[in-house]
TrEMBL record, chain A:
GO MF annotation: an example: oxidoreductase activity
Region called Disordered, residue ranges: 1-24
Protein name as annotated: CO or xanthine dehydrogenase, Mo-binding subunit
Pfam family, one: MoCoBD_1
Domain Aldehyde oxidase/xanthine dehydrogenase a/b hammerhead: 30-136
Domain of life of the organism encoding this protein: Bacteria
TrEMBL record, chain B:
Pfam name, any one: CO_deh_flav_C
SUPFAM superfamilies the UniProt entry points to: CO dehydrogenase flavoprotein C-terminal domain-like, FAD-binding/transporter-associated domain-like
Residue intervals of the FAD-binding PCMH-type domain: 1-166
InterPro entries for this protein: CO_DH_flav_C, CO_DH_flav_C_dom_sf, Diverse_Substr_Oxidored, FAD-bd_PCMH, FAD-bd_PCMH-like_sf, FAD-bd_PCMH_sub1, FAD-bd_PCMH_sub2, Mopterin_DH_FAD-bd
Keyword Ubl conjugation annotated: no
Annotated SMART domains: CO_deh_flav_C
The protein's name in its UniProt record: CO or xanthine dehydrogenase, FAD-binding subunit
Keywords: FAD, Flavoprotein, Oxidoreductase
GO MF, any single term: FAD binding
Length: 728, 286
C-alpha cells in the first residue's frame, strides 16, 4: 500500500498551508541571530578595500610601499595580484575585481589591505598613494549612448524593441507623459560580509551572505584562477538581500587576501561602504503615449525608456527585457511599440532589486492609466478594468497568459474595502506626526489605485533549475528527514517552506535543513520570486523519489534513503531581437493596491493612511510568510514613492548613510488590509505563484496616484519630494 | 584611546583641564556615530554619565547637561512645553533615552532640535572649567556650523530656563514621519507679561538663529492685554519675516527655497496655535 501525500499530511503538523514558527524569528527579534558580520575565526585578519573617490578617472600610478610598512599589515594587493581573470559580471564579464588603469564609478575597488585589526587596515589604506587623471563623467542616461564610450563596445548595454500589431493606428483620446524614477537602494540591514579560510592545498572556503552560491563560486574561481571544486562556499547569516547580493561584493577580495596571506580573512562593510559595495535599482526615464477609444479601450501604447545601468552591466540586460516585456502593464493592448535601452554611465552600477525593471515601467504605465482615466472622464478603476488582462490574454511579446490573471478582480477587491475614517485630529496620525507641523491645516486626503504585473522565475530561455537532496533515516525510533540545497535563505523563510514541503510529502514531522553550501548542485538565485517555486519544486521532486523507496514504511531500520534531484520549470524562449516576440516568461504574478494618503499641501508632507492590497499567490504554502512578503514589498514601494533615493551629482553619491537615505519607519507604514487569492497555476508546484515582487510594483504608483488626487499635481517623478508638492 | 570616568564635576573639570583633547561623551548618540564612521579618533573620551551634578534638574529649572530627552518629556513637559515638544521629535525612543540637551549643545549642529527652543525661550548655558564658570546666553552660544562658544577646557554643566511664561510651540519638517533630521525647524515662545515674542529657526542657516525682525514685528502688532483672533495678514507677515531671517542652502535634505517656504508656513501656523492658546487661556480665566 502506498499512502498519498494528503493522507500523510493528516498525521503531521507544520505542513504546507500552515504557518509554523520560523527558526530564525525569535533570534532575530532578540538580536541573537548570527549574521555573516558575526563570523569569527581564531587567527583571522581583516580585509579592507581602497575605493576610487572619482566617478571616472584614469589611474596614473598606485604606490603601496608605505602601506606595506604599517605594522600589522599582512598584504596590500592590487590587480597585479589577481591570478585569474580580472573581470567578472552576471551577464557580461566587464567589471574588474580590482581596477587596472581606469575607474568608472565612485567607490570602485582599487586595492585591498589585509591587517591584524580593521583599524590597522584602515590606517594602511590611507597610505596607499593613487594618482588619477580625473575625467569628465558620463552621467545622463538619455545621451550616454552618444557620449564618451566607457567600454570597448560603447555605452549601449542592451536595446529591447517590441513590435506588436500596427504602428499605423489612431485613437480618440491620446495621453503622453515623461516619467522619472530615482535610484532606489535595497537598504538591507546586514551589510556585506564574509570570511575566507584558506586550506592547505591552495583551495579556499568562503562563508558568505549572498543570494546565489554557485554563481558567486564560478566568478570567484575564475578570478582566482582555480578550478571550481577548489572554491567552496557556505551560506552565512544573511540580513536581507532584495537583489543587492546577486552580484559579487567582497567575495573575490576576501579569498585573494586569504590565499595570499595563508590566513583566514574577514571583511565587513560599514553602512557607508555598503552603499558603494552593491548595485542599486536602475533609475529610469520613461516616455509613454497611450491611445484609447472613447469607451476607454486601449488602442495602442508606445514607449521609449532609458534605464541607467551605471558603470558596469550587472543584470542590466535582463532588467531592460523586463521593463520592455512588461512595459504596458497587466492590460490587453493590440498595438504596442516599445524601445527600452539599458546604458552605461559613470553613475553607481545598478542591477537587481525587487521588481527588477517592472517597478520602473509600473510607475509610468500606471501614471498613464490615471491620466487616461482623467482624459476620458472615467474612474481610475474603471479604465483599468476595461483593459484588464485575463487568462488567455496575449502579452506584447505574443505570449499567451496561460494561468489565472485576475486583474479586474484584484482591483475590485481593493476598491470594495472600507475606506479609513476621515483625517485624524491626533497629530500623531497627521503628516509630520509629533514633529507638530500641522493640526489639520492644509491637510487634504487622496485615494489612488494601481495594479502591476511581474514575471516569476528566470526568463528568456535561461536554464533555470534547482537541486535538492532529501535523506531519510531513523532517529530515536522515528523517521527523520534532512533536506539539503544550495538555495539561499536570505530572510524570506525558505528554510521553513522546505520543512513544510517535506512534512507534507513524506509525513515526517522532524525535518532538518542542512547548511546551504556548494557541496550540492546549483540552487539558482534567491531572486525573481522563484525559490519557493523552483527549489520548492526540487524538494518536492526529491521527496517523491524518497517516497517511492519508503514505500509506506514507518520503520526502515538502519537503511538510509538519500535522493538528489534537479528540477526545472518549463522552458522559456529568447525573444526576437527585432520584434521582441517570444514566450519569454514562465509565469506572471499580479497585485493591486489602493492607497489613501493625507497630504499637507502647504508643507508638501505626506502620510500614507492606508495601503491595502489584493494579490493572487496561486497557493499560500505559508500564509503568514505570504502576508509578510506583501507587507514588506508594499513598504519598499512606499519608500520609493515618498522618500527613498540615492541622490547623485556628477556621478557622486550624496547620501551614503541611513541619516539621509531614508527608509520607511513603522510610523510611515500603515497597517494593511490584505486579500490573498489562491488561484492555482496548473504549471507550478502546488499551483504556487511567486509572491515577493508584485506588491513592490503597484504600491508606488497607487501612493503617487493618491497624492495626485489630493493635490491635483502631475507628479511625474518618484520619490515625490516636498519640493515637488510645494513648487519650491 | 583612554576612557576617563570622573565621578564628580570637579574631577571632570580637572581631567578636562589636564586633557583638553579628551572628547566628552554623554549619551554618545553623536560621538559614537563619529567614531564608528571613523570621522574622529580622539586620544581620550571623557565619560560624563557618572557625574551626578549633570544628571539632575532643580526647581529653578537649572537642567543638568546630562538629563536625557526622555526625562525632559516626562518630568518637565508641564513647565517647558516647547523643550518637551522638541525633545519628542528627537530620533527614536532609544535615542531619547540616551541623548541629552548637553550633547545637542556640544555637537552644535545647525539641525539640532533643541536649539530653536533654547533661543526662543531665552535659555542661558552654564559652562565651567577648572578656572571657574560662565553663563552664556543661547544667542551667543552658536558660533558656526558645529562650532560653539566652549573653550578647550570647558564643559557644559547646565541649561537655565524659566518656566514657560506663556504658550510655546515647536515645529519641525522632515521627510519621514519619525526619526528624521530636521529639514528646517521653528520655535516660538510668547511672553504675555512682557508683551513680546521669542522666535528662532533651526537647520536653515549655518547656526540656529533668532528671527529678530519677526519678533519685533509681533511685539508691535500683538495686543497682549486683550488678545483677539489674529488677522491673516499678521500671520502672513510674521511668516515672511521668519523666512527672511533664514539663509539656508540646497542640500540632500531639501532645497533652500523649500526651507524658506516651509519656515513661513510653520511660523504662521505655530503663531496661530500659540495665540489661540492665549485667547483660550484668557477666556478660561475670565
Ligand atoms: C539615530 C539618531 C537619530 C538622531 N536624531 C536626532 C534628532 O532627531 N534631532 C537631533 O537634534 N539630534 C538627533 N540625533 C543626534 C543626537 O542624538 C543629539 O544631538 C543628542 O542631543 C546628542 O546628545 P548625547 O548626549 O548623545 O551627546 P554625545 O554624543 O555624548 O555628545 C555630543 C557632542 O557634545 C559633546 N558633549 C556632550 N556633553 C557635553 C558636556 N557636558 N560638555 C561639553 N561637551 C559635551 C560631545 O563631546 C560631542 O561633541 C540623532 C542621533 C542618532 C544616532
Amino acid at each position: 500500500m502506498t499512502l498519498t501525500p494528503a493522507e500523510l499530511t493528516s498525521a503531521v503538523s507544520g505542513g504546507i498551508g500552515t504557518s509554523p514558527q520560523r527558526p530564525d524569528g525569535n533570534l532575530k527579534v532578540r538580536g541573537e541571530f548570527a549574521y555573516a558580520s558575526d563570523l569569527w575565526h581564531e587567527d583571522m585578519i581583516w580585509g579592507a578595500t581602497l575605493r576610487s573617490p572619482h566617478p571616472y578617472a584614469r589611474i596614473t600610478s598606485v604606490d603601496i610601499t608605505e602601506a606595506l610598512k604599517v605594522p600589522g599589515v599582512y598584504a596590500v594587493l592590487t590587480h597585479l595580484d589577481v591570478p585569474g581573470r580580472n573581470l567578472y559580471g552576471l551577464e557580461h564579464k566587464d567589471q574588474p575585481v580590482l581596477a587596472v588603469d581606469v575607474v568608472r564609478y565612485q567607490g570602485e575597488p582599487i586595492a585591498l589591505v589585509g591587517a591584524d585589526h580593521p583599524e590597522t587596515a584602515r590606517r594602511a589604506m590611507k597610505k596607499i598613494v593613487v594618482t588619477y587623471d580625473v575625467l569628465e563623467p558620463v552621467v545622463d542616461m538619455e545621451t550616454a549612448v552618444d557620449d564618451t564610450p566607457l567600454h570597448p563596445g560603447g555605452n549601449l548595454v542592451r536595446h529591447v524593441p517590441i513590435r506588436r500589431g500596427s504602428r499605423d493606428v489612431t485613437a480618440d483620446v491620446v495621453v503622453t507623459g515623461r516619467y522619472e524614477v530615482g535610484m532606489q537602494d535595497q537598504a538591507f540591514l546586514g551589510p556585506e560580509s564574509g570570511l575566507a579560510v584558506p586550506a592547505g592545498d591552495g583551495s579556499v572556503d568562503l562563508y558568505i551572505a549572498t543570494q546565489w552560491l554557485h554563481v558567486d563560486r564560478s566568478q570567484v574561481a575564475a578570478a582566482l584562477g582555480l578550478p571550481e571544486e577548489k572554491v567552496r562556499l557556505t551560506l552565512s547569516g544573511v540580513g536581507g538581500a532584495f537583489g543587492g547580493r546577486e552580484d559579487l561584493s567582497m567575495q573575490v577580495h576576501a579569498c585573494l587576501l586569504a590565499l595570499h596571506t595563508g590566513k583566514p580573512v574577514k571583511m565587513v562593510y560599514n553602512r557607508e561602504e555598503s552603499f558603494y559595495g552593491h548595485v542599486h535599482r536602475h533609475p529610469a526615464v520613461l516616455y509613454y503615449e497611450h491611445g484609447a477609444d472613447h469607451t476607454g479601450k486601449l488602442v495602442y501604447v508606445r514607449t521609449k525608456m532609458y534605464l541607467d545601468g551605471g558603470a558596469y552591466a550587472s543584470s542590466t540586460p535582463a532588467v531592460v527585457a523586463n521593463a520592455a516585456t512588461l512595459g504596458v502593464g497587466p492590460y490587453e493592448v493590440d498595438n504596442v511599440t516599445v524601445d527600452a535601452y539599458g546604458v552605461y554611465t559613470n553613475n553607481p552600477p545598478c542591477g537587481a532589486m525587487r521588481g527588477f525593471g517592472a517597478v520602473q515601467a509600473g510607475f509610468a504605465y500606471e501614471s498613464q492609466m490615471d491620466k487616461l482615466a482623467e482624459a476620458l472622464g472615467m474612474s481610475p478603476v474603471d479604465v483599468r478594468v476595461r483593459n484588464a488582462m485575463t487568462e488567455g490574454s496575449v502579452m506584447p511579446t505574443g505570449q499567451v497568459v496561460d494561468s489565472a490573471a485576475p486583474v479586474a478582480q484584484l482591483l475590485k477587491l481593493v476598491q470594495d474595502k472600507p475606506l479609513p475614517a476621515g483625517t485624524s485630529t491626533d497629530i500623531r496620525e497627521l503628516p509630520g506626526g509629533v514633529s507638530n507641523t500641522t493640526h489639520g491645516e492644509g491637510v487634504v486626503r487622496g485615494v489612488g489605485y494601481a495594479v502591476g504585473i511581474k514575471n516569476i522565475c528566470f526568463s528568456e530561455g535561461y536554464d533555470d533549475y534547482s537541486t535538492a537532496r532529501v535523506r531519510v533515516s531513523m532517529v530515536n525510533g522515528e523517521l527523520a528527514a534532512a533536506v539539503h540545497t544550495a538555495a539561499c535563505e536570505v530572510g524570506q523563510g525558505l528554510v521553513t517552506i522546505m520543512q513544510q514541503i517535506v512534512r507534507t510529502e513524506l509525513g515526517i514531522e522532524r525535518v532538518t535543513v542542512l547548511p546551504m553550501d556548494t557541496t550540492i548542485g546549483n540552487g539558482g538565485s534567491t531572486s525573481a520570486s522563484r525559490q519557493t517555486y523552483v527549489t520548492g519544486g526540487a524538494v518536492k521532486a526529491a521527496c517523491a523519489l524518497v517516497r517511492e523507496k519508503l514505500a509506506g514504511r514507518t520503520d526502515i531500520g538502519d537503511e538510509v534513503i538519500d535522493e538528489t534531484t534537479e528540477w526545472r520549470h518549463r522552458a522559456t524562449e529568447a525573444i526576437d531581437p527585432e520584434t521582441g516576440q517570444g514566450n519569454a516568461h514562465v509565469q506572471y504574478g499580479f497585485a493591486a493596491h489602493r492607497a489613501v494618503v493625507d497630504v499637507d499641501v502647504e508643507l508638501g508632507l505626506v502620510r500614507v493612511v492606508a495601503l491595502d492590497c489584493a494579490q493572487d499567490v496561486g497557493r499560500a504554502l505559508n500564509p503568514q510568510a505570504v502576508v509578510g512578503q506583501i507587507q514588506g514589498g508594499s513598504a519598499q514601494g512606499l519608500g520609493l514613492a515618498v522618500m527613498e533615493e540615492i541622490q547623485t551629482s556628477g556621478g557622486k553619491v550624496r547620501n551614503p548613510s541611513f541619516t539621509d537615505y531614508l527608509i520607511p519607519t513603522v510610523l510611515d507604514m500603515p497597517p494593511m488590509s490584505i486579500d490573498v487569492l489562491e488561484l492555482a497555476d496548473p504549471h507550478a508546484p502546488y499551483g504556487i505563484r511567486g509572491v515577493g515582487e508584485p506588491p513592490t510594483i503597484s504600491s508606488t504608483p497607487a501612493i503617487v496616484a493618491a497624492i495626485r488626487a489630493a493635490t491635483g499635481l502631475a507628479l511625474t517623478r518618484v520619490p515625490v519630494r516636498p519640493e515637488h508638492l510645494t513648487g519650491t | 584611546m583612554d576612557f576617563l570616568r570622573p565621578e564628580t564635576l570637579a574631577e571632570a573639570l580637572a581631567l578636562k583641564a589636564e586633557r583638553p583633547d579628551a572628547v566628552p561623551i554623554a549619551g554618545g548618540t553623536d560621538v559614537m556615530v563619529e567614531l564608528n564612521f571613523d570621522h574622529r579618533r580622539p586620544p581620550a573620551l571623557l565619560d560624563l554619565t557618572r557625574v551626578p551634578e549633570l544628571q539632575r534638574w532643580d526647581e529653578g529649572l537649572r537642567i543638568g547637561a546630562g538629563v536625557p530627552y526622555a526625562r525632559i518629556i516626562a518630568e518637565l513637559g508641564d513647565r517647558l512645553p516647547g523643550l518637551a515638544m522638541a525633545s519628542r521629535t528627537v530620533g527614536s525612543p532609544q535615542i531619547r533615552n540616551r541623548g541629552t540637551v548637553g550633547g545637542n549643545l556640544g555637537a552644535a549642529s545647525p539641525a539640532g532640535d533643541t536649539h530653536p527652543v533654547l533661543l526662543a525661550s531665552d535659555a542661558v548655558v552654564e559652562v565651567a572649567s577648572a578656572r571657574g564658570s560662565r553663563m552664556i546666553p543661547a544667542t551667543e552660544f552658536y558660533l558656526g556650523v558645529k562650532r560653539n562658544a566652549l573653550e578647550q577646557d570647558e564643559l557644559i554643566v547646565a541649561v537655565h530656563l524659566k518656566p514657560a511664561a506663556g504658550p510655546q510651540q515647536f515645529s519641525k519638517v522632515g521627510t519621514r514621519n519619525a526619526m528624521v533630521i530636521a529639514v528646517c525647524s521653528f520655535a516660538i515662545s510668547l511672553f504675555p507679561a512682557e508683551k513680546r515674542v521669542g522666535a528662532a529657526v533651526g537647520s536653515a542657516a549655518p547656526t540656529p538663529r533668532r528671527a529678530r525682525e519677526a519678533e519685533e514685528f509681533l511685539a508691535s502688532e500683538l495686543d497682549f492685554s486683550s488678545p483677539k483672533p489674529l488677522l491673516d495678514s499678521v500671520k502672513r507677515e510674521f511668516g515672511e519675516l521668519v523666512s527672511r531671517a533664514a539663509s539656508p542652502i540646497d542640500d540632500v535634505r531639501g532645497s533652500a527655497a523649500y526651507r524658506k517656504h516651509a519656515l513661513a508656513v510653520m511660523a504662521r501656523r505655530t503663531l496661530g496655535w500659540a495665540w489661540q492658546e492665549l485667547i483660550d487661556g484668557e477666556r478660561a480665566c475670565a
